[in-house]
Fold:
Amino acid sequence: MTGGTAKGRSAARFDLPETDAFTRPYWEAAAAGRLLLRRCRAEGCGAVHHYPREFCPRCWSEDVVWEQAGGRATLYTWSVVHRNDLPPFGERVPYVAAVVDLAEGPRMMTQVVDCPAAGLRIGMALRVAFRPIGPGEGAGASGEGADVVVPVFRPAEGAET
Structure:
């Protein structure tokens, strides 16, 4: 065993989510090019939240449902990552780690793509895009199987870059 992996096995990946029965709809929707959020249906609340939870973080109601987001956001803040030693992020540097304000209200950690760092501006309009990152559940030993797809954001048409 060298470098923490046995011969023939790949290094651990730190970018693949752990899916379960609750989050599976979120990841399946992302693979189909749709961003899902959770909305509270409790009387007088109606809060939308992200990351997916089984309860409303505002009123604690468990009456929450999946809802498709429109895919629009504005850039809240970002950082250009030049070094990351966790596999496979090191192969992707530099990249833009960001926090965006979704049009529906929640903030979301994500990545901004297709825009040079010099073109980023707080408040700039963004649109969701989807990027496959690797083999997901059910992938065979060869890595074949459904790709895990993550939401990322790029400048909206007409936004300055």
User: Anything to note?
Assistant: The longest helix spans residues 24-31.
